[in-house]
Specification:
Distance between the termini: 48 Å
Shape: globular
Order of helices and strands: EEEEHHHEEEHEHEHEEHEHEHEHEHHHH
Number of strands: 15
Strand content: 15-25%
Number of domains: 3
Structural class: alpha/beta
Radius of gyration: 27 Å
Helix content: 40-55%
């Protein structure tokens, strides 16, 4: 048993004897622990920059400016890692400039203008507090309370990816109330999840209860539900199809599958990322969820991603392939339509309307007109089901062909599962 008192670790033997172990060093590089506590916020950041301030381990953000200043030196080995980490999480680099009392961390606009961290949201400082320590840490222990505090979910995910990367040669003990943190870190092999509850005895004294969560889908699902994550019917589908546009997703889900590949009904779940920029992010989140629940990629090669035609879309598909194909995913799970706009697959009787909509250069107006045209097409389908089926069989032949290929691949995958 160990007790931490006044920077000293004291061991207690089975016989109740107290023995001092070693003083907890709070100065880099001899420290072992990087504390990142929930009470890390400070009234103000110190502007003094010297060796003592820079290397001090405080457990709060008081000497943040000094630590950022250290990493602003291009000759430092950790410099490039820090620069890349800033871009990944914040979208910009934070360095230091002179101030009346020393230096301040800031985003530089030009040679004489900058925005200092104390004029930014608290989430920026929270992220920086971890980045500066992650950049230099090797074989250290991070004790982090509520890493998600004041941080945008997108930035948080970037930060968690850095933590996963640094866990190769560092150890992390993290408390959280966030289902994002739990899913991202819990999906990594070797992660142990503990749930802390509270109990009261007859004297109404609160006592913490710590329970290790079993590595079963049911137990892990329960943790996410306690953290407010709605799982709904994620486990009820045999395959998933990720699409770029909401209109394309509904046409495929409501009509093309029903008309031409009815065996996929109730088996294939379609999902719209709503924009090409979100396809990779949503697919990665999806994969992490199921790795978290099942401790393995449960839907490996049973998820298809199809985006529109175009060079930007091609780059996104190639990037996803470069990540997943080396890990055993089939290249055929990541595809493109030939057309850049799904409206090109509408029946010929809407050809003039499609051309008019796609000719609009204003993005916002174009999107509004697209939605209006989709509503018009859907109303026509509902009034002319058989006629619409025949028209789409011709106009959307390529889309139907891809759905039939998915049906074939799902069937062969089911047969392989039965054989095994």
């Amino acid at each position: 048993m160990f007790a931490l008192e006044k920077n000293t670790v004291e061991g207690v033997t089975n016989q109740g004897q107290r023995r001092g172990v070693n003083q907890v060093v709070q100065v880099e590089p001899k420290n072992f622990i990087y504390p990142y506590l929930s009470k890390r916020k400070v009234a103000g950041y110190g502007e003094q920059v010297n060796e003592q301030v820079t290397n001090s381990i405080t457990g709060n953000l008081q000497n943040l400016y000094a630590k950022v200043d250290r990493l602003s030196n291009p000759q430092l080995p950790a410099y490039q890692y820090y620069m890349n980490a800033c871009q990944k999480t914040l979208g910009f680099v934070v360095t230091c400039v002179s101030s009346p009392n020393g230096k301040k961390a800031c985003y530089v606009i030009d040679s004489f203008t900058s925005i200092t961290v104390d004029n930014m949201g608290e989430g920026v400082a929270n992220i920086l507090g971890l980045l500066v320590d992650l950049s230099v840490a090797e074989n250290r222990l991070f004790v982090i309370e509520e890493a998600e505090n004041d941080i945008h979910p997108k930035a948080l995910k970037g930060l968690l990816e850095l933590i996963i990367e640094k866990s190769k040669n560092n150890q992390f003990i993290i408390t959280t109330h966030s289902n994002i943190v739990t899913r991202y870190l819990g999906s990594e092999e070797g992660t142990k999840i503990f749930q802390v509850g509270i109990e009261y005895d007859k004297r109404k004294i609160p006592t913490s209860r710590v329970e290790k969560i079993p590595n079963t889908p049911e137990a892990r699902r329960g943790v996410l539900e306690d953290l407010g994550y709605e799982l709904n019917d994620v486990d009820l589908w045999e395959g998933w199809l990720f699409l770029e546009e909401a209109s394309a997703e509904k046409i495929i889900r409501e009509y093309l599958i029903r008309w031409f590949v009815p065996l996929l009904q109730g088996k294939l779940r379609t999902f719209s990322a709503r924009s090409v920029d979100q396809v990779e992010i949503k697919f990665d989140d999806f994969n992490k969820l199921f790795c978290y629940l099942n401790l393995q990629p449960a839907y490996k090669n049973r998820v298809w991603v199809i985006v529109d035609g175009g060079e930007t879309e091609k780059g996104i598909i190639e990037k996803i392939k470069s990540t997943y194909v080396p890990n055993g995913w089939n290249e055929s799970n990541f595809r493109q339509f030939r057309e850049h706009d799904f409206e090109k697959y509408y029946p010929d009787n809407f050809k003039n309307e499609v051309e008019a909509v796609l000719a609009i250069t204003n993005k916002k107006k174009r999107q509004q007109k697209k939605m209006a045209l989709f509503t018009q097409v859907e109303s026509w389908i509902k009034e002319n089901d058989e006629k619409a089926r025949g028209a789409f069989e011709k106009s959307a032949a390529e889309v139907i062909e891809k759905l039939r290929e998915i049906e074939t691949e799902m069937t062969s995958s089911e047969m392989e599962s039965e054989d095994s």
